[in-house]
Amino acid sequence: GENVEQHPSTLSVQEGDSAVIKCTYSDSASNYFPWYKQELGKRPQLIIDIRSNVGEKKDQRIAVTLNKTAKHFSLHITETQPEDSAVYFCAASKVNSGYALNFGKGTSLLVTP
Amino acid sequence: DSGVTQTPKHLITATGQRVTLRCSPRSGDLSVYWYQQSLDQGLQFLIQYYNGEERAKGNILERFSAQQFPDLHSELNLSSLELGDSALYFCASSVASIPAGELFFGEGSRLTVL
Fold first, then answer.
1. Which residue, A74, A100, A99, is CA-closest to A88?
2. pLDDT in tens, A40-91
3. Closest residue in A to B57 (Cα–Cα)
4. A105 contacts: CB under 8 Å, gap ≥ 6
5. How many alpha carbons fall within 13 Å on the CB side of residue B70?
6. Closest CA–CA distance from residue A49 to any residue of chain B (Å)
7. Residue B80: half-sphere exposure toward Cβ, Cα within 13 Å
8. Neighbouring C-beta atoms of residue B37, cutoff 10 Å
9. Which residue of A39, A100, B45, B85 sits 20 to 30 Å from the alpha carbon of B60, by its own alpha carbon?
10. A2 and A99 Cβ atoms separated by less than 8 Å
């Protein structure tokens, strides 16, 4: 199955700064890359996703970039706010295959005021 | 509220015992996924069912089994429990058999094995 590596495991930034989380995947056929946010004590929720036919996608302060050649993708959060503090998980999947989303181990983001 | 219901929310049991976790997917969703979340392992994919049939299998132990019933609810059975099985078990559902869209997670079932 797909192997997804995520870095860093913890990240602390000051409010207003940017945060970047990076992930690499092993299966070059993977073509769907979502990011989930899990607040403390809550369930994971999708925040943004990207498919392999695009290199970048933005949604307000959040953006995801994909480099298929290098097999890595990144989450960028600009103008961070304390409510961005959470654990972020990247994942990869091969659409039209049989296996489900394989998640990275997560990045604990702390935004300090 | 994601629309995915998991029961029980909390469960405390002893080593060697067997437990069953239950999941009701969102209305209309045919796929159910089970994930295990422990402190240092993130979200580990266990197994996926689609419309009653096993679709994909991840790192699920032989002591664990699951099924999806005709009404689409799913159960995860954990037997011969060990201390290391203590974790938060999430169920998620989606419309399609492939995770090309959002997975909707339940609130999780927290299992503590003493």
1. A74
2. 999 999 999 998 888 999 999 999 999 999 999 999 999 999 999 999 999 9
3. A99
4. A6, A9, A89, B40, B41, B42
5. 0
6. 8
7. 5
8. 21
9. A39
10. yes
Quote the tokens at residue B76. Answer: 């995860």
Which residues, including other chains, have CB under 8 Å from residue B88's CB and lie 6 or more apart? B36, B37, B38, B108, B109, B110, B111
Q: Residue A103 in 3-state DSSP?
A: strand
Say yes or no for a CB contact (<8 Å) between B42 and A106: yes
Phi, psi of A24 (to 5 degrees): -125, 155
pLDDT, one tens digit per residue, over B90-109 is: 999 998 766 667 899 999 99
Return contacts of A38-46, CB within 8 angstroms, 24+ apart.
Answer: A38/A86, A38/A87, A38/A88, A38/A89, A38/A106, A39/A85, A39/A86, A40/A86, A42/B107, A43/B2, A43/B90, A43/B105, A43/B106, A43/B107, A43/B108, A44/A89, A44/B43, A44/B90, A44/B103, A44/B105, A45/B2, A45/B105, A46/B102, A46/B103
